[in-house]
Design the sequence.
């Protein structure tokens, strides 16, 4: 599952620009962002509020079309795909974690997590056992049979994250996924994302918290609608040994 050194990136963004609206009201959220993320790699995206982080992630996931520039996911240029093929790529290749969790209220936690696999054609038994494993990773094994309205905000968020990491999807996109969580649970989420990267997935994590970004291999900074800087991340262990908080 580990990518060969010369393997092409799972996510490739080239000169991506996005302008919302037109005329006087136009907002240039991105002006020329380029980023490659390979399998096995976790990249943190940082930047001030309004710098275009969520826009970048939505474009990377095929939820939003760029105004110009190119987006490739697992070697497929998204702009060339039919609506149906694009939906299939979103379902089978990409896992999303957004700030609003979008759980289906009529399904249990387990059924919500199993849904992407069910839709992708997995057998019910496989979908359920993978979903159980993902819930357990997030410390939610005991709540598998609960419905979303029986769970706290933080628990719902963990179910949403389990749903994003379930199966073998090659690209995980997480937009400030620890928002509503206490710091211990937040660590679980970062650990789960890190584990998927170590298993070979490409992971993009939007965060404003440097301690969270430290879980990544690289940190990129968005400014003026493009990526203006990049650093190698220090792993949490080194932050701790350096005496930071
Ligand atoms: N649907 C939208 N319509 C108009 N402007 C938007 C829309 N979404 C985002 N923007 C604007 O685009 C810029 C980037 O937003 P966003 O990608 O949400 O940034 P971030 O996630 O870094 O806070 C901001 O100026 C924001 O107000
Ligand atoms: Mg945002």
Sequence:
């Amino acid at each position: 599952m580990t990518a060969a050194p010369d393997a092409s990136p799972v996510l490739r963004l080239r000169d991506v620009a996005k302008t919302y609206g037109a005329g006087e009201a136009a907002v240039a959220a991105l002006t020329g962002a380029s980023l490659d993320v390979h399998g096995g790699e976790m990249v943190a995206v940082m930047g001030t509020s309004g710098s275009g982080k969520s826009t970048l992630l939505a474009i990377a996931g095929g939820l939003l079309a760029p105004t110009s520039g190119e987006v490739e996911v697992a070697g497929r240029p998204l702009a060339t795909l039919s609506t149906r093929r694009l939906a299939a790529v979103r379902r089978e290749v990409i896992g999303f974690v957004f700030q609003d969790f979008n759980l289906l209220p009529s399904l249990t936690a387990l059924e919500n997590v199993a849904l992407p696999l069910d839709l992708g054609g997995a057998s019910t038994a496989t979908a359920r056992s993978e979903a159980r494993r993902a819930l357990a990773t997030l410390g939610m094994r005991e709540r598998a049979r609960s419905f979303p309205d029986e769970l706290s905000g933080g628990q719902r968020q963990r179910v949403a994250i389990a749903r994003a990491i379930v199966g073998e999807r090659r690209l995980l996109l997480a937009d400030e996924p620890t928002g509503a969580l206490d710091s211990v649970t937040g660590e679980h989420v970062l650990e789960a994302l890190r584990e998927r990267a170590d298993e070979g997935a490409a992971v993009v994590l939007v965060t404003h918290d440097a301690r969270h970004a430290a879980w990544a291999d690289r940190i990129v900074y968005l400014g003026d609608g493009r990526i203006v800087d990049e650093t190698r991340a220090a792993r949490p262990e080194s932050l701790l040994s350096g005496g930071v908080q």
